[in-house]
Automatic annotation (TrEMBL):
Annotated signal sequence range: 1-23
Organism: Pedobacter jejuensis
InterPro entries cross-referenced by the UniProt entry: TgpA-like_C
Lineage summary: Bacteria, Pseudomonadati, Bacteroidota, Sphingobacteriia, Sphingobacteriales
Stretches assigned to the Protein-glutamine gamma-glutamyltransferase-like C-terminal domain: 166-226
Keywords carried by this UniProt record: Membrane, Signal, Transmembrane, Transmembrane helix
Transmembrane portions of the chain: 99-117
Pfam families: DUF4129
Protein's UniProt name: DUF4129 domain-containing protein
Record flagged with keyword Transmembrane helix: yes
Length: 241
């Protein structure tokens, strides 16, 4: 028998005998006997008169809600919010209703943002353009009688429309000078990126920001505010050859 196997068996026998002798020394704890309580129970009773006295106080009327006369308006709102609660309860179990209310909430949120910001630039630039007495097409921008149209808007006090024509005339000027390639689907930012001359680009950027603020921001403008704006556009156009 190999030595390591002999040593292993010897150690196993020693530890086994030691464990058995230790287990024999353990004492088994005797079971504890539980005695039943045979003492007399003294039943305590509440004082009914004291309870009745407390129950008459408003502070202790927990089960009785304070009531008041409801007006027709109050009843309407109770009915209204109960119906709203039923709708949302049904939407939780109906996928179609769930997505309908999600879409409705998103639409309401967008409408609130639209009214707070007060301009249509976040959606599209066509909403204000329809107020012009002509379509803004490629052939129109080169055919509009700008001096006549601008003067008419000034006389009518429609200064925002006059600013719109000032900006269109500037785009026509840049297009005629082949500085930009005017297309109806392009944005003002596209035109700005097409300008290579730094000084022209910087001044046109200022005019564009000014125009966006007045036109899309629905900024109120009168004759006194319009005149320096007109001069800034005329000064820029005079530099374009």
């Amino acid at each position: 028998m190999p030595k390591f196997l002999f040593k292993f068996l010897l150690l196993f026998i020693i530890f086994s005998s030691a464990g058995n002798s230790y287990a024999q020394k353990l004492k088994i704890q005797p079971k504890t006997e539980i005695k039943l309580d045979s003492s007399t129970i003294n039943v305590q009773k509440f004082n009914k008169d004291a309870l009745d006295a407390y129950s008459e106080q408003n502070e202790f009327k927990y089960d009785a809600a304070l009531t008041r006369d409801l007006s027709l308006w109050d009843r309407f709102w109770i009915w209204f919010w109960s119906k709203v609660g039923q709708l949302f309860t049904g939407a939780a179990s109906n996928p179609i209703s769930k997505y309908f209310f999600i879409g409705l909430g998103a639409a309401i949120l967008l409408y609130i943002i639209y009214k707070v910001i007060g301009n249509e630039n976040i959606f599209a630039k066509k909403s204000k353009e329809i107020t012009l007495p002509y379509d803004i097409l490629n052939e129109n921008i080169h055919e509009i009688d700008y001096e006549k149209e601008i003067q008419q808007f000034i006389e009518q006090g429609k200064f925002r429309l006059a600013v719109r024509l000032l900006y269109l005339r500037t785009l026509k000027k840049l297009s005629d000078a082949e500085i930009i390639n005017w297309q109806p689907e392009k944005t003002n930012y596209n035109y700005l990126m097409e300008i290579s001359k730094p000084d022209v680009k910087q001044e046109f950027s200022l005019l564009t920001h000014q125009f966006d603020y007045i036109w899309y921001g629905d900024f109120p403008i009168d004759a006194n505010k319009f005149e320096p704006i007109k001069q800034s556009f005329n000064h820029f156009n005079a530099q374009i050859k």
